[in-house]
Amino acid sequence: MKLWIKYLIAIALGLGAAFILPANNTAIASVVASLSEFSVRFGRYTLLPLLFFGVSTAVFQLRSTKLLGKTALWTIIAVFGTTLILALLGLLSILIVKLPRIPITGEKMSSLPAIDIKSLTMQLFPYSGFEALLHGAYLLPCFIFAGFAGAGCTTDQSASKPVISFLDSAAKLCYSIMSFFIEWLSVGMIAISAWWMFSARPVFASGTYTPLFIMLLVDFVLVLGLIYPLILYFLCNDQHPYHAIYACITPIITAFFSGDSNLSLQVNLRHARESLGVHQPSSDVTIPLFSIFARGGSALVTTICFVMILRSYSSLGFAFFDILWIFCASLVISFVLSSLPTGGTFVALTILCTIYSRGFESGYLLLRPAAPVFCSFAAAFDAVSAVFGSYVVAVKTRQFEHVELKHFI
Questions:
Q1: Within 10 Å of residue 115's Cβ, how many Cβ atoms?
Q2: Which helix (H) or strand (E) is 388 found in, with range?
Q3: Residue 363 confidence (pLDDT)
Q4: Which spans in 259-343 are helix H?
Q5: Counting Cβ atoms within 10 Å, is residue 230 exposed (0-12), middle (13-18) or buried (19+)?
Q6: pLDDT class for 112, splitting at 50, 70, 90?
Q7: Residue 185 phi/psi, 5° resolution?
């Protein structure tokens, strides 16, 4: 059975269970929440070992074949390009379509979530390199450590041959274990989707945020069905760009219902390799970098939500420099969400409100009830960008081979 069919069946069961079980029963809600958290932990269990050994081996192979620079350049272009496209789409959407105002509440500001740039920078190079392997959420320190390990092995390949043999074997072993965990995660998606519906059902029932969700859904369809396929068609000369959509089904539903970029990273990696035919050295470098930096979905959702907040408080229009500031601020903030695999979009929104000031510091409270849903949309956008972006990088560096549709996992 195809992997996406297993996941869809699990999600259907989870959503059905959410409607059958009494959501107002705190004991049942607590059990479902615990099962959902356990499933996420189960899915992310092999992430750090896979990331370390996979990136080390990939960097060694790319540097040995003199493809590291070209792969890095195309990855930077793809990461920045997809983020720019999504942020621009979000801005155009909310400027063209004026969504209804959100009723102002009297809720007071609570403690604001923040991103400590200094702390994140210091964590890139901890006192011991092995500390980089201990952080399960912030993946960049592990990626950097693994990159140095792989690059260092190329300086004397004869001496490092046993090390490379070990790293390569460990990477293959971790990938096999990860594949096993991803298969069984389909069972865990029952609890994950049930808990998501428990959290989202009151939001849907209120109807206040329905126009926002419709706009996000339309934008998602545009990105998945038009914008990214056109990029593949013209940039990669791909005559059948819609096959990449088929490869995105499981990553999309995993990212949407979990809202976890680290969980969807492994699903993205497996589909990039086994469905799109991206070679291991390319996929093991590009997919993690997309997960860490390419948060264009957060930029799109943050832009739309922030403009909604401003319009809810005031009927005044926007000056050109206000629009430019919103676009640039959302774009920049999206690149520093790497330590937040979940909920990063809402944190970005609070930061944007705080920086903008002018009496809108607590504006994010208007959209706090809808955070579980719009964060899910942001994660789905990011998952699609990772799959399409890694495929573009592989095509431009000739590190892929064609896989027939019937052989997709």
A1: 17
A2: helix 371-396
A3: 79
A4: 261-274, 280-293, 296-313, 320-334
A5: exposed
A6: low
A7: -65, -20
CB atoms within 10 A of CB 72: 17
| pLDDT tens-digit readout, 386-395 | 999 999 999 9
* Cα-based distances in Å from 315 to 127, 145, 246, 308: 52, 50, 43, 11
Q: Which residues contact residue 206 at a Cβ distance below 8 angstroms, ignoring those fewer than 6 apart?
A: 369
Distance between CA atoms of residues 354 and 96, nearest Å: 25
Q: Which residues contact 365 (CB under 8 A, 6 or more apart)?
A: 105, 107, 109
pTM of this prediction exceeds 0.90: yes
What gap in Å lies between CA 35 and CA 30, rounded to an integer?
9
Quick check: 296 and 382 in contact, CB under 8 A?
yes
Give the helix ranges, DSSP H, for 44-160.
47-64, 68-96, 117-124, 140-152
Contact 272, 251 (CB under 8 A): no
Rounded CA gap, 316 and 136, in Å?
Answer: 44
Using the predicted structure, report yes or no on whether residue 150 has a pLDDT greater than 80.
yes
Between CA 184 and CA 192 the distance in angstroms is 13
Q: What is the 8-class DSSP label of residue 227?
A: I
Q: Residue 100: how many CB atoms within 10 A of its CB?
A: 13
Amino acid at site 317? G
Going from the C-alpha of 374 to that of each of 203, 342, 343, 371, the distances in angstroms are 11, 12, 10, 5
Q: Which two tokens stand for residue 204?
A: 């849907």
**DSSP character at residue 225:** I
Could you tell me the end-to-end alpha-carbon distance of the chain, in angstroms, rounded to an integer?
A: 9
| Per-residue pLDDT tens over the stretch 46-90 | 899 999 999 999 999 999 899 999 999 999 999 999 999 999 999
- Which residues, 6+ apart, have CB-to-CB distance to 186 below 8 Å? 3, 6, 7, 9, 10
Length of the chain, please? 409
State the amino acid at position 316 in one-letter form.
L
- Tokens 């929440």 correspond to what residue? 33
Specify whether the CB–CB gap between 18 and 198 falls below 8 A.
yes
Kindly state the tokens that stand for 241: 């760009």
